[in-house]
Amino acid sequence: MEKLGLYLGCNIPFKAPDIEQSFRKTFPVLGIEVEDLEGATCCPAWGTAPSFDLDTWCAISSRNIILAEDKNIDLMTGCNSCFGIMSEAKHFIEDDPARKKRVNENLKAIDREFKGTSNIYHISHVLYEKVGPEKIKESLVYSLDGLKAAIQPGCHILWPSDVYHVKEKNSFFPTILKELTQALGAEVPHYSRLEFCCGMGGMRSTDVEKSLKLFTDKLMSMKEEIDPDMIVTTCSSCFLQFDMSQQILKERGMIDFTIPVFYYTQVLALAQGFDPAQVAAISQTPRDAVISEIQSEKRKINKG
Amino acid sequence: MSDYIKLDSEKISEGVKTITELGGHGILKCVQCGACSAVCPGVKAGFPVLCRLLIKKVLDGQLEEMIEESSSWGCQACNRCTEVCPQGVRPQEVVFAFRRYQANELAFSTSAITSQMNLHSYGHAVFSDARELRKKVGLAPEAPTSAYNEKAQKEIQTLLENSPMGELGLY
Q1: Does residue B108 have a pLDDT over 90?
Q2: Which of A78, A160, A220, B47 could be cross-linked to B42 through a Cys-Cys bond (beta carbons 3.0 to 4.6 Å apart)?
Q3: Inter-chain residue contact A38 with B46, CB threshold 8 Å
Q4: Which residue of B lies nearest to A10 if distances are taken between CA atoms?
């Protein structure tokens, strides 16, 4: 069984631990052993060290990568921002020997050294490249056949593609999450704003109204063009934005509907038959009805 | 008299040097084509001084005049700009170099303060006591991260305090 270091980031363990639980349940079923990276910190988020000092950013990111290096394993993260930030930091260090020297000088103060032996994966890359849609399909107990999903890949697994060692064939027309969601049996129609920003991140903390403007454009594109039964994402930040901001728009009377939102491994865990009280328990936007639908008797896959 | 911009070669050189040293190495390659701004979610949402215009203002020697500009803090760091730039400017790196210039002059967004404090205290920019929530979903109450690990907290505090960030009086 392949072993990967589970890098949790911040959103998942403290805001949406049911997503963390869905990793811990689904990956072993698919032949991936997840190992904790004890003492991992923030990636560090864009608004912190990357906004102040490039070498400090690289030192903090590399410390997280070193935790995987020490175990001789690669690192896997469920947050797009963490994937982007740590991948870029690794690129900045490996692209500039003088920086690598400075970063390692800084790391000496905590008795650590960055070597660069561990790769960084996003969970969607692991599911797509190491596991594959066929094996995912074989692991299912329930089928999502006939359900329609709008997918939200998120920005930071797509760009800048030249620093990522796993990438889409066309980063402005991503297909990895589409194929992973189709493997569950769901229909995944295209909508025009597929690769658009959801407005989370620095934009939301700087100006929430501007963030909501982008979010509304994206949500309405999904609703009007494909009218999905659920939204499926592999970004924890996008998940929080879709979950929280639909409630704001509803309270303001700007929408008269809401669409249930799932992190991909949550809906995968549900389709594998895991307990919703563990793998899909925390959301502001209601999703109980679609969870019951997914785990209904009529959707059971006959493995006979 | 018209209110046109008077170009000052010393200010232009100083601005370019500052941005280059802070990580915006590609700034001089910019031909102002605007491809970056065309795909920028920040520009679409209404933050006016991002990508092409931010670069233009630096190249016009207006770095100091922009120090309070909040647009840079609306940058999502999504790197669409970097992906489409035909000149290899890597505009996101220029925007973040400008942010570093602002931050080191303490002209950063107030929204960034809590995340800095959390990073220093817990090793997490986003942190809340989620022990009950974690138990509820069947997980160990304390996440296996720096949040409950004194050695890890000490390590990140050492890295932050020994860095230029440690000199800003944030911690």
Answers
A1: no
A2: B47
A3: no
A4: B126
User: What pLDDT shows up at residue B1?
Assistant: 52
The counts of H helices and E strands in chain A are: 14, 7
Determine, for residues A54 and B22 on separate chains, whether the beta-carbon distance falls below 8 Å. yes
Nearest CA to B127 out of A176, A14, A178 is that of A14
The encoded tokens of residue B60 equal: 């016009």
Q: Which residue of B has its CA nearest to A44?
A: B125
User: Is B119:B153 a contact under the CB 8 Å cutoff?
Assistant: no
Q: Which residues contact B171 (CB under 8 A, 6 or more apart)?
A: B116, B117, B120, B157, B160, B161
Q: Where are the beta strands (DSSP E) in chain A?
A: 2-7, 32-36, 74-77, 120-122, 149-152, 230-233, 261-263
Nearest to A87 by CA among A108, A115, A118, A111: A118
Q: Quick: pLDDT tens for B126-143.
A: 999 999 999 999 999 999
> Averaged over B9-25, what is the pLDDT?
97
Give me the residues of chain A with pLDDT under 50, please: none
Selection from A273, A199, A184 nearest residue A229 by Cα: A184
* Proportion of chain B above pLDDT 90, given as a percent: 88
| Cα–Cα distance for residue pair A120/A85, rounded to 1 Å | 10
- Out of A20, A160, A210, the one facing B79 most closely (by C-beta) is A160
* Confidence band, pLDDT 50/70/90 cuts, at residue B113: confident
Q: Three-state SS string across A75-120, please?
A: EEECCHHHHHHHHHHHHHHHCCHHHHHHHHHHHHCCCCCCCCCCCE
> Which of A35, A102, A159 should be substituted to probe chain B, the one whose Cβ sees the most B Cβ atoms within 10 Å?
A159
**Are the Cβ atoms of A48 and B78 closer than 8 angstroms?**
no
- CB proximity B18 to A under 8 Å: no
Cis bond before residue B48 (omega within 30° of 0):
no
Contact A271, A180 (CB under 8 A): no
Residue carrying structure tokens 């990438």: A167
What pLDDT is attached to residue A155? 96
- Any CB–CB contact under 8 A between B141 and chain A? no
Q: Do A63 and B127 touch (CB under 8 A)?
A: no
ipTM: 0.96
In one letter, which amino acid is B171?
Answer: Y
| Distance to chain A for B111, nearest Cα, Å | 6
β-sheet bridge partners, residue A77: A7, A122
Give the pTM.
0.96
pLDDT on residue B2: 59
CA B34 to chain CA centroid, Å, is: 21
Q: Residue B84's pLDDT is what?
A: 98
Q: What is the CA radius of gyration of chain A?
A: 19
